[in-house]
Structure formats: structure tokens, C-alpha cells
């Protein structure tokens, strides 16, 4: 593929508004078997104050111009330059409004990048965020150019009975030759990245919602033929999201229709196009036979996330792509709060923090580090990251902690009232909380510009004679590859002082201490706080609910942590006390294993885990979290440098076996007692019981050394959660066993026609923790069901191997790295975005031992020298090497 050189760096400081203002967009899209004709009429006007001679420069990407007319008259070719990458028009009117009619011809069936207009399983669909609209027509393709759109779609009626675009339906009718049309009107001004068009032969699940002001909204979910019933849970999640946004944020839906379309070829999870969300079908379609509890939770979250974007993203959008966290961080915060309210708040918080530390921390601590609001980029698609989304959400959460829940709602109300219809900035957002609450967020704003994970160090000293507890809190931010500064930030540290019986003591900080209720406001590099009037030495429960995105270092004694794991009234911190103990034990075990020594585990730690498993006062989902040990990648991150993944694997397995043996007699009846009575239900409580049963089963298998219990569960399960858990344990623990081979084959033939389940089958084999997984994965690339061009399938095999198989990817001989590099190169020819995403698996290469480091560096270096590499992959590879 021929690629233009797009190596320029885009900088936040270069931002300036366009010279031309756009008012309306009128489109006609004619879809044919081999091409699509797009006529776009723009109503434009030179902006007041813009130079009278400024040219109009429109973005394009692989476009072909068919015709160009100004106010109805063809433009003389001497007046414009059209290339596939842009259209520059000279001599446009100095004042007054004018129209430009632009005709382009596209070939959606050849579009494998899945950006712009493409075909997926015969359906025409679009993806325009961030810069896909310029692949449909020449345009001011940037988020601060807002316009109302009227779109007419035409296609063959038999091939595409469903014709959709943004907004409300306006007209529809028949055309000659078996064709038909539909016109859609979107009254809300929007940027081009929110444009969408869908045409195809789809099934529909219809429902409706009555908003708080009594308006009736039609809700439609479109799926491939014969699968509309699999969207019932998604529809339920959508209605719950609509109610929640009204109640929690006072936000009402604004169009007459809200539609979701499930598509099988999609680069990301889903897209919040105004009134017409397009989803990866993975986040729409499910039932209990084909989807796990994790899939149900994923559908609920993504449905909510995209719906919440209607206000945080669509009604208020971003001025430029540097402000991406303005919509993404805020919307993730909102979807997390929704899940917390719908399910268990503590369990949701633990899951979110586990996700943050597993995905965002390594990004923030490695070569791909960037601030939540970056100041430059080469390829914006590479900035849909855990930092923008998940750390971005943590910053919103910190604001809520600093200004309090009521202040947060007041600030949000002001934000919605003041910026509705705007393309806003982070400064606009912060100003609303400052004005609504009087808080000073000047220092807090550093969180948006400084990359890296601050280390929060906490020391405690108790003076029994005076009854005083002295805390010394220090923060340190190392200068990382992003080079964005290391100033002390405002860190809200939620805490509790826990008495001997688990009750929270009322803290009495000495006058002048920066403490408000249960929050310490750390603003300096170091602060000492004295709590007075303590009759006994309390257990310090610090950073409750993970109130700030920091790496916590305490010198807390093991027995204090064991006490907190038993007593802390804050369930999140109770979980963390245990998780820290286990994390340290796993690090020590890895050192044992690496030295060729037998792995030891302090029986008191195993006992604490077993006691938690048996504690009926705790909800099962929380117990399951407590018993799910840190992953091999988590342990690698804790160790930090000179990591040997083989030693980690041996150590972790030995620790699981030791816990299993110590707990076996108590786990077995607990496991048996969790067996379900009655029909399957995906609700959070039932899912929690299944999660607990599943971790118990893994301990029991490790202890017994035989696959029998897993084989039994695999055979008798009537739902995917239990069946897939059993299959995973068989593959991971007994990869060579005949029973495993049989189960894998049976699973494949049973679900052969369901792509989402077959994705699971591929990724399960890709993540078997063994050096021989590489041979399996390589062989699976030749499997008839493997298709590199399908993002879900590519991620299921190659992505899962690279990001989810510590031992296989990081093989000491470098063969894992070489294989993934080769696949990235092949995929880059088809789909640069997905290739670049898979390439981020290399980001932690510097933490391994020197042998692996050299092999990884060599694979990256070789990749970076490949000819014809996309900007997307080049950007990731070159930054990874810096
Ligand atoms: N805004 C979407 C994410 C998204 C971004 C880019 C895409 O291009 C392929 C697709 C989706 C969200 O936050 O859900
Ligand atoms: Zn989003």
C-alpha cells in the first residue's frame, strides 16, 4: 500500500480556530455493489476577522474528487488543488455565506482499515472518530467545527432494507430499479466524528423509553439476521442507563430515536455517534449459553458508556483531540458510577483499580507514557489509551473527592448549563467546579499535564504516652520519557483509623493539619500530620477506595496488614491489605524460584485468604476478588526490573498449590455449596457466586493435581461462565491432557457458527502459559476460521498472545517477539489501527532480564525499519524504543 508521509507532529500550542465557519451539511450517499457516490453540500462563511485571502483547506484521506461546485457553479480547476489527502480552494467569497458541493466516489468494499465508510458482513457502516470522516468527503474534519446534518441514503431495497443516519427520520420512499431512500435530520450541531450511516439487511429489537419530561423515545437495536433476541440484555442495560442519567445527573435524552447497530468488524468497542451508536457486536449480543458473566458486565458498561456520551461528548464535545479525556475520562467515570450503583460499589471499585494498575500503570511507567492531556501527537488513534480513559476517570473521581459529592453535582450542572453546544476544554471543565464550589484547582490541574505515576510514601509513628499518631506523607514523581515535569500535585488521600475491634475511630488532627473529614489533602512534597487523643494504637487504613492514582508505599507491618485484612470497615482497603500481602509473598516466591529454591509461603497469609473465602458476612463477589491472586503480569510489574517470567510462573503456581492444599478441606464443601439451584440468572449476586466457585475450583485443581473436577464441570455446565471457566482451567493447568484436547474439540464443534465464542476458543489457546504456546498460535494462524482482517479475531489470537501470555510472548529465545512483530507487519497492511494497538504489548520490554531485553529491542528495531509501515505502527514502535 502506498502511504503518504504524515510524519508531522501536531501540537496543542498550535491550536487556532478555522478561517471558515460551517453552518449546515447536506449529504446524499448512494450505495452500489462496487462503489458509493457521496455528494456533500456545505454551507460556509468566512469567519469574522479571518484573512480575506485565506484559502479553504479541507482534509481528505485516500479520496477521489468527482466534482466541485461553488454556489451551484462548477469551480474552475485552476482555483483548487485536489489530492487524495486534501482539497485546497482559493478565491472564496470574502463575506457572506456560500455553498460548496463536493462529489466523491468511494469503494467501501475495499476499505480494510475500517475507518470511514466500509462493509462488514454485507452491511455498510461508518466509523469517523477520530479522523474517519475525511475518508468519506473533503471536510474540516476536526471536533471544533459543528454543523447540523441532513443525510439522504439510497440503496437497493432488497440488499439494504434498513437505511440509517443520525438524528430523527424525516422522509423515506421508493426509487426506480428496486432502490429506495431515507432522509435523516439531526437538529443538534455536531462535529464530523459523530457522523454515522448504516445500511443493510438487519434484524431489529424494538422498544421505547419515556423520558423524565414525558417524551417517548423509540429504542432500536439492529443485529445481523436472526440474532435480535440476543440484544435483550443490551436493551435492558440501555433503559437502565437512561433512567440513571436522569436521576444521577439530571440528563435527559434529546432525539425521538436512539439506535444501536451491532457490527462484526469493528476496530474498537463501540462508538457514540449522535443517536446512532455503532457497536462491536461483542458488546451487544449475548445469552447465557454463549456469554460469560464478564461478557454481561462488559455489555452493560459499554452500552452505558456510549449512552452517557450523549451529554459528555456529544452535546458538549472537545475543542481539539488534546482534550480527548474531557469526554472519555468523564464518561468512564460516569459508567463506573453507574456500574457501582447497579452492582456492588466495592466490587466495582476493586475491579476498576485492578484494571488501572494492570493496564494504565505500565503505560504510565514505560516508554508510551503521556499525560492525561497530551501536548503533542503524531497519530491520534494511538491516544485512545488507558491513560486518557482510565487515569482520566481517576482525575474526575479525585475532583469529586476534593469538592465533595454535592459540590461535584453542582459543578457538573454548571458544566452542562454553560457549555451545552460547545467544543470545550479541560480549563472550561475545571472552571465549573471552581465557580460552583470555591475550590482552588490550580495545583490539581498539574494532574492533566504531568505524566507518570506519583509514588505516595506513608510512614507512621505512634507515641503511646501522648496518645498521638504521627503520619508523614511524601509524594515523588520521577521524570519519565514524556519529560512533562515533577512538581508536587494535590493528592486527596482518604483514610481511616481503625480500632482494635474494627470500628473507625474519629480522627482528631492537630490544628492546621490539611485534613477535611476523612480526606488528607497532600499538596507538598512532604507533610507531617499528628492525630491526637488516641487511647490505643489504631491500624492505619490509608488511601481508602484508592482515592488517588498513585503507587502507594507504606512500611506497614505484616501483622497490621493481617489485622486490616480482617477488620477494616472499608471493603476496598480490606481487599488491598490482603492483596498487598499476597503480592509481597509472590515476589518473595519468585526470588526463591529463580534461585532454584523451594517456594515458601507464610501459612498465616494462606490462612487469611482461606478465612476470607469462608467469611459469610462478605458478598461472594468480594471474596472472589480477594482470592484472585495477582496475575503473572502484575507480579512482573511489582518486581519492576530484571524480570524472569518463567520464575514468576513457577512461583505463582507453587503459591496457588500451597494455598489450595492448606484450604482444600474447607474449600471443597464451600465450592459444593455454591452450586446453583434453579435457572441461570446474570444478576450480580449470582455472578458473584459463580466467580467465587471458579477461583475455588482452581485452588482445588492445583491441590489435587487431577483435572477431574474441571472435566465434570465442563461436561455438565449449562452456561458459558461455568463451562468456559472449566475449559480455561483445563487448558492452563493440564494442557497436554487428553481430556483437555477433547474438551477443546467439543467446544469448537458446538460453537463453530458463533464468531464471538470462537474468539474465546482462539484466545484461550493463545494464553496457555507455556513456551509451546507459540507453536500452537502459529498453527492457529492457518486455521480455516482465522481471519487477520477481522479485528476481534486478530486480537483474540495475536493480541491475546502478545498481551496475555507472559511466558509465550517473552520466550527467552525471542521467538515470541519475532512472531508478533511479523504478524504486526502483516496486519499493518490491512488495518494500521489494530496493528498499532497490538504493538503496544512491547511497552514493558525494558523490565525483563538482559537476554530478553536484547531480543525485544531487536524485534522492535527491525519492525521500525520495515518499509511502508503505517504512521500508527511507526509511532508506537519508535516511542517504545525511546
Ligand atoms: N469514542 C469511542 C471510542 C472509539 C474511538 C475511535 C474509534 O475508531 C475506530 C472507535 C471508537 C468510545 O469511547 O467508546
Ligand atoms: Zn468513550
TrEMBL record:
Q: Which residues form the Peptidase M1 membrane alanine aminopeptidase domain?
A: 233-444
Aminopeptidase N-like N-terminal domain ranges (all copies): 51-194
Where does the source fall among the domains of life?
Bacteria
EC no.? 3.4.11.2
Ranges for the Peptidase M1 alanyl aminopeptidase Ig-like fold domain?
A: 452-554
Q: What CDD domains would the database entry show?
A: M1_APN
Please give one Gene Ontology molecular function term for this protein: alanyl aminopeptidase activity
Q: Which cofactor does it need?
A: Zn(2+)
Q: GO BP, one example?
A: proteolysis
> Which reaction equations make up its catalytic activity?
Release of an N-terminal amino acid, Xaa-|-Yaa- from a peptide, amide or arylamide. Xaa is preferably Ala, but may be most amino acids including Pro (slow action). When a terminal hydrophobic residue is followed by a prolyl residue, the two may be released as an intact Xaa-Pro dipeptide
- Which keywords, in A-to-Z order, does the entry hold? Aminopeptidase, Hydrolase, Metal-binding, Metalloprotease, Protease, Zinc
InterPro entries, per database record: Aminopeptidase_N-like_N, Aminopeptidase_N-like_N_sf, PepN_Ig-like_sf, Peptidase_M1, Peptidase_M1_dom, Peptidase_M1_pepN, Peptidase_M1_pepN_C, Peptidase_M1_pepN_C_sf
Q: List each copy of the Peptidase M1 alanyl aminopeptidase C-terminal domain by range.
A: 559-881
Q: What does this protein do?
A: Aminopeptidase N is involved in the degradation of intracellular peptides generated by protein breakdown during normal growth as well as in response to nutrient starvation.
Give the UniProt family note: Belongs to the peptidase M1 family.
Query: What protein name applies here?
Result: Aminopeptidase N
Organism listed in the record: Aureimonas glaciei
Amino acid at each position: 500500500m502506498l502511504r503518504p508521509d504524515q510524519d508531522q507532529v501536531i501540537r496543542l500550542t498550535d491550536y487556532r480556530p478555522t478561517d471558515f465557519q460551517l453552518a449546515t451539511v447536506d449529504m446524499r450517499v448512494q450505495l452500489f455493489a462496487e462503489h458509493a457516490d457521496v455528494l456533500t453540500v456545505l454551507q460556509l462563511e468566512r469567519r469574522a476577522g479571518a484573512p480575506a485571502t485565506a484559502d479553504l483547506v479541507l482534509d481528505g484521506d485516500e479520496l477521489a474528487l468527482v466534482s466541485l461546485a461553488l454556489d451551484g457553479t462548477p469551480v474552475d480547476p485552476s482555483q483548487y488543488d485536489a489530492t487524495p489527502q486534501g482539497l485546497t480552494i482559493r478565491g472564496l467569497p470574502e463575506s457572506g455565506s456560500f455553498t460548496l458541493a463536493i462529489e466523491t466516489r468511494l469503494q467501501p468494499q475495499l476499505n480494510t482499515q475500517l475507518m470511514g465508510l466500509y462493509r462488514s458482513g454485507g452491511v455498510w457502516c461508518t466509523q469517523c472518530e477520530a479522523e474517519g470522516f475525511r475518508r468519506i468527503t473533503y471536510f474540516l474534519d476536526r471536533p471544533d467545527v459543528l454543523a447540523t446534518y441532513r443525510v439522504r441514503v439510497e440503496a437497493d431495497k432488497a440488499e439494504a432494507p434498513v437505511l440509517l443516519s443520525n438524528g430523527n427520520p424525516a422522509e423515506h420512499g421508493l426509487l426506480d430499479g428496486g432502490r429506495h431512500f431515507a432522509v435523516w435530520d439531526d437538529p443538534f450541531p455536531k462535529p464530523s466524528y459523530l457522523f454515522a450511516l448504516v445500511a443493510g439487511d438487519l434484524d431489529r429489537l424494538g422498544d421505547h423509553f419515556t423520558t423524565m419530561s414525558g417524551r417517548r423515545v423509540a429504542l432500536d437495536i439492529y443485529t445481523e439476521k436472526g440474532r435480535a433476541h440476543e440484544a435483550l440484555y443490551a436493551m435492558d442495560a440501555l433503559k437502565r442507563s437512561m433512567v440513571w442519567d436522569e436521576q444521577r445527573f439530571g440528563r435527559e435524552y434529546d432525539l425521538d430515536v436512539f439506535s444501536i447497530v451491532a457490527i462484526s468488524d469493528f476496530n474498537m468497542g463501540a462508538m457514540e455517534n449522535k443517536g446512532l451508536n455503532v457497536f462491536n457486536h461483542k458488546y451487544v449480543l449475548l445469552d447465557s449459553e454463549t456469554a460469560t458473566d464478564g461478557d454481561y458486565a462488559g455489555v452493560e458498561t459499554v452500552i452505558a458508556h456510549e449512552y452517557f456520551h450523549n451529554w459528555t461528548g456529544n452535546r458538549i464535545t472537545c475543542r481539539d483531540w488534546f482534550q480527548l479525556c474531557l469526554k472519555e475520562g468523564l464518561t468512564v467515570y460516569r459508567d463506573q458510577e453507574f456500574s457501582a450503583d447497579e452492582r456492588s460499589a466495592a466490587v466495582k471499585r476493586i475491579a476498576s483499580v485492578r484494571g488501572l494498575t494492570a493496564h494504565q500503570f505500565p503505560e504510565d511507567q514505560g516508554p508510551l507514557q503521556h499525560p492525561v492531556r497530551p501536548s503533542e501527537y503524531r497519530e491520534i488513534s494511538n491516544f485512545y489509551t488507558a491513560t486518557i480513559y482510565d487515569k482520566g476517570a481517576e482525575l474526575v473521581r479525585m475532583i469529586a473527592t476534593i469538592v465533595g459529592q454535592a459540590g461535584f453535582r453542582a459543578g457538573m450542572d454548571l458544566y452542562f448549563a454553560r457549555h451545552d453546544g460547545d467544543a470545550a476544554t479541560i480549563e472550561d471543565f475545571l472552571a465549573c467546579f471552581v465557580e460552583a464550589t470555591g475550590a482552588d484547582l490550580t495545583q490539581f490541574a498539574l494532574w492533566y499535564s504531568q505524566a507518570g505515576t506519583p509514588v505516595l510514601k506513608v510512614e507512621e509513628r505512634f507515641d503511646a504516652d501522648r496518645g498521638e499518631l504521627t503520619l508523614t506523607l511524601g509524594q515523588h514523581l520521577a521524570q519519565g520519557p514524556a519529560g512533562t515535569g515533577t512538581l508536587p500535585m494535590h493528592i486527596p488521600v482518604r483514610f481511616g483509623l481503625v480500632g482494635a475491634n474494627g470500628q473507625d475511630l474519629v480522627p482528631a488532627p492537630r490544628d492546621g493539619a490539611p485534613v477535611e473529614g476523612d480526606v488528607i489533602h497532600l499538596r507538598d512534597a512532604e507533610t507531617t500530620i499528628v492525630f491526637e487523643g488516641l487511647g490505643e494504637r489504631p491500624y492505619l487504613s490509608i488511601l481508602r477506595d484508592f482515592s488517588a492514582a498513585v503507587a502507594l508505599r507504606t512500611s506497614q507491618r505484616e501483622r497490621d496488614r493481617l489485622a486490616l485484612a480482617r477488620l477494616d470497615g472499608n471493603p476496598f482497603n480490606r481487599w488491598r491489605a490482603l492483596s498487598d500481602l499476597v503480592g509481597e509473598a509472590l515476589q518473595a516466591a519468585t526470588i526463591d524460584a529463580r534461585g532454584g529454591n523451594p517456594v515458601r509461603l507464610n501459612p498465616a497469609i494462606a490462612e487469611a485468604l482461606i478465612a476470607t473465602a469462608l467469611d459469610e458476612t462478605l458478598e461472594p463477589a468480594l471474596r472472589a476478588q480477594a482470592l484472585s491472586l495477582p496475575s503473572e503480569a502484575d507480579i512482573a510489574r511489582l518486581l519492576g526490573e530484571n524480570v524472569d517470567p518463567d520464575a514468576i510462573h513457577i512461583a505463582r503456581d507453587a503459591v496457588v498449590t500451597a494455598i489450595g492444599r492448606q484450604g482444600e478441606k474447607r474449600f471443597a464443601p464451600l465450592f459444593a455449596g455454591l452450586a446453583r439451584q434453579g435457572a441461570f440468572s446474570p444478576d450480580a449476586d449470582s455472578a458473584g457466586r459463580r466467580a467465587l466457585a471458579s477461583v475455588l475450583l482452581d485452588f482445588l485443581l492445583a491441590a489435587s493435581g487431577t483435572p477431574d473436577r474441571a472435566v465434570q464441570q465442563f461436561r455438565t455446565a449449562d452456561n458459558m461462565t461455568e463451562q468456559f471457566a472449566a475449559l480455561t482451567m483445563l487448558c492452563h493447568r493440564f494442557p497436554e491432557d487428553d481430556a483437555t484436547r477433547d474438551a477443546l474439540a467439543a467446544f469448537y464443534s458446538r460453537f463453530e457458527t458463533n464468531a464471538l465464542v470462537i474468539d474465546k476458543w482462539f484466545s484461550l489457546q493463545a494464553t496457555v502459559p507455556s513456551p509451546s504456546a507459540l507453536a500452537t498460535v502459529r498453527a492457529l494462524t492457518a486455521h480455516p476460521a482465522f481471519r487477520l482482517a477481522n479485528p476481534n479475531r486478530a486480537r483474540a489470537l495475536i493480541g491475546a498472545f502478545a498481551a496475555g501470555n507472559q511466558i509465550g510472548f517473552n520466550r527467552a529465545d525471542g521467538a515470541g517477539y519475532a512472531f508478533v512483530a511479523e504478524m504486526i507487519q502483516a496486519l499493518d497492511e490491512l488495518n494500521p489501527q489494530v496493528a498499532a494497538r497490538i504493538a503496544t504489548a512491547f511497552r514493558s520490554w525494558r523490565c525483563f532480564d538482559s537476554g530478553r531485553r536484547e531480543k525485544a529491542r531487536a524485534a522492535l528495531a527491525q519492525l521500525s525499519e520495515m518499509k511502508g509501515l503505517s504512521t500508527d505502527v511507526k509511532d508506537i514502535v519508535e516511542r517504545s524504543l525511546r
